[in-house]
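note to self: dont lose this again. the chain is below, predicted strucutre after it. 255 aa total, dont forget to put it in the shared folder this time
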Amino acid sequence: MELDEITITRAIIEDFTSDFLQSIDTDVALVGGGPANLIAARTLARAGVKTVLFERKLEVGGGMWGGGMMMPRIVVQEEARHILDDLGVRYRKYEEGYYVADSIECTGKLIYEAASSGASIYNLISVEDVMIREGDAVTGLVINRTIVDMQKLHVDPITIRAKVVIDGTGHDAEICTTLSRKIPGALHVAGEKPMWADVAERIILDNTKEVYPGLIVTGMAANAVAGAPRMGPIFGGMLLSGEKAAQIAIAKLGL
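---
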């Protein structure tokens, strides 16, 4: 068969445009493609929630790809081992309560599970701002191509409407920080403290919550907003936090 470049181009543009148009008005929009938001996206999509995830980088997966100091291994504690089982991730018991898994296998399966469950995932898109409507609730996002910000181009963004937004942007808690800057006093972002894995893992679920009407925070962003420590290459709390964020969103949607 002779390949037609125009047909190839048309297929890409038409299919992407059709899919993206279905995503501009969604139930839940997740910002950041790290492990917490990937688990949240999978959980939401499996529950029948219309789910869209935006990642600013080329690759989805956040910091899990690199394991600990570029050694592709992560540690998951007993409380979150069921998630590895559910994902089909291989692991071995290191000692009582600690399990070691390949970070690349785990990240790949997280991405696959989120996408195959029905979540729409878009990379190379940055979130510039939030939309505030309906009695001071977050009702959407302002998005642009990541390259626009990188090259400092003067290109106007477009908007996404969402009933719930989940901030899973990691240490910087970018969505919460933007809201705090745009509406002084609306939300205090304390910033993360130095590493203390034990404390960080124990309190991350308490910090995973709706912090402003329509805005839920998860993963390391949850601890950053609350002023809690970082945890390093142990990922049980991140995964459990993503599950909880999805459950909060599902309850908020009345499903």
